[in-house]
Amino acid sequence: MRWSQMFVPTLRDDPAEADAPSHRLLLRAGYVRQLTAGHYSLLPLAVRVRARIIEIIRAEMDAIGAQEMLLPALHPAEPWQRSGRWELMGQEMFRLRDRRGADHALGMTHEEIFATVARELNSYRRLPQQWYQFQTKFRDEPRPKGGLMRTREFTMKDAYSFDLDGAGLDASFGAYHGAYTRIFERLGLPALACEASSGTMGGSDSTEFMCPADVGEDLVVHCPACGYAANIERATSVLPAASDAPGPAAPERFDTPGVRTIEDLRAYDAPDDRQIKTLVYVLDGTLTLVLLRGDHPLNEQKLVDATGATGIRAADPAEIQDALGALPGSLGAVDAFLPTPLPVIADEALRGRRDMFTGANTDDVHLRGVDVDRDIEVGKWADLREVEAGQRCVRCGEALEIRRAIEVGHIFKLGDRYARALGVEVLDPDGKRVPVVMGSYGIGVERAMAAIIEIHNDDRGIVWPLAVAPFQVTVVVAQSDDAEVAEAAEDVYAALKGAGVDVVIDDRAERAGVKFRDAELTGIPFRVTVGRRGLAEGTAEVTARATGDTEKVPLDAVVAHVR
Ligand code: ATP
Ligand code: MG
Ligand code: MG
Ligand code: MG
């Protein structure tokens, strides 16, 4: 590849609109351009990095026996209606009608669609199956941000496991857990495997892979000593123990059945069949639980959308009360409003955090009093109490950290929910029809690209790990108007190419300084400079991007040197 023919529109200055280092660098180094908020065009260098990330993920998926497929991005409403998620996904789902008036969605995930294919499995003899794809997902994010970090269309590697029973699912889940650990290691992402909640996927168990970074939108509790790690969303979904000081009384206009304190909350029995959800806010460093009651199944996403749409900011409890009070009836009624005097989990870390912990639901820790104690995972809760009390982990007594992190991957045990809803059944060894047990496993490809940059950059630009770099080497022709230099550089370039090295030659009619700056900005791991001075003694300079170290290397030894 010749730099003179490539489209790499680097910018001299930092773009004003960039809100994260990776966003700034992707724009400045000529990797991406924004079409509109949340939609980016990937330029040639970005496409190369994306392909390398995909290669690594694919290799690890294939290594655990997963099979690549490709399912449609446009879905009829029917399977989504059958699973109940046509409703549940709320405004995050892009919807459209075809010319016949039939409802469709742009796929935001593919559990339902893979399940339709899995109907043909039929017999336990065909299980387990591991299926995956790289496919564009569409999500109408309320706040796209951070360049490629949170977009409205992105490539996901999504995988799905199909097993006969829970033990099979455990084995599948374990295999993906291992594969993800290897993938993130190869990508240069120091991801922590965190206990997490399952959100709108449903299911019993989920692990998020979280890459610590200042621009991360999630918070994770982590003990470096013993490795305990959990998303704080999950953490705050566990109800606190009784607190001595009762919170302020809930406002009259809410239908509050005598719930004033956390103790009341624990003892609370919903008056009818309806479900209860808790939204957790942080108001000036105080955790505040808001209980909402809704029809079954309570539409959490809708609630979140609606409360989000009201523009609530974590400033004023009264503001939140007003906004929640104004929600349309079908979305749920406010049962209780409980500003708790809970000592705050890492006050500092939470400041500036997005105002609402969505998905902090009580699906597991049920509010029907009797179940509360049984369902709380005591170890987890105890860990968190320790965070509040002294920032020590109960498992090992060492200090806990709370860190911002980017969710780069997420794996779920789904159970048989989708199989039941969509009729994915097999004959078991006794000839009985049983629903299959599913898992789902996602990695955001472009988000991974952005996260890698967040971890690997310096004041001169991106510093790609070799495994994902767009090119391994750039050969810089220091004086492009010197025929002898140009010829020697072409020879080095040809030798590298012949040896299978991914190489570009910077043959532009530019000053060497410009080429050096672009090589650094774009993050190419090795720069081989061929110039007049070195040529006189038969050498080139090899500079490593990561360390800045430069070595003189005989021209015929360059290939060996960069490999
Ligand atoms: P988030 O909490 O950041 O919104 P999510 O929990 O909604 O992410 P999942 O449904 O778990 O995401 O999807 C699997 C993976 O897809 C995520 O771990 C992330 O890497 C990626 N991903 C999700 N949403 C986006 C997005 N809007 N832009 C880019 N990548 C995304
Ligand atoms: Mg999301
Ligand atoms: Mg998430
Ligand atoms: Mg997730």
TrEMBL record:
Residues 38-465 form the Aminoacyl-transfer RNA synthetases class-II family profile domain. Consists of three domains: the N-terminal catalytic domain, the editing domain and the C-terminal anticodon-binding domain. Its EC number is 6.1.1.15. Pfam families: HGTP_anticodon, tRNA-synt_2b, tRNA_edit. CDD domains: ProRS-INS, ProRS_anticodon_short. It is an enzyme of class 6 (ligase). SUPFAM superfamilies: Class II aaRS ABD-related, Class II aaRS and biotin synthetases, YbaK/ProRS associated domain. One of its GO terms (cellular component) is cytosol. It is found in: Cytoplasm. It catalyses: tRNA(Pro) + L-proline + ATP = L-prolyl-tRNA(Pro) + AMP + diphosphate. The gene is proS. InterPro entries: aa-tRNA-synt_IIb (IPR002314), aa-tRNA-synth_II (IPR006195), aa-tRNA-synth_II/BPL/LPL (IPR045864), Anticodon-bd (IPR004154), Anticodon-bd_dom_sf (IPR036621), Pro-tRNA-ligase_IIa (IPR002316), Pro-tRNA-synth_IIa_bac-type (IPR004500), Pro-tRNA-Synthase_IIa_type1 (IPR023717). Gene3D superfamilies: Anticodon-binding domain, Bira Bifunctional Protein, Domain 2, YbaK/aminoacyl-tRNA synthetase-associated domain. This is Proline--tRNA ligase. The keyword Cytoplasm applies.
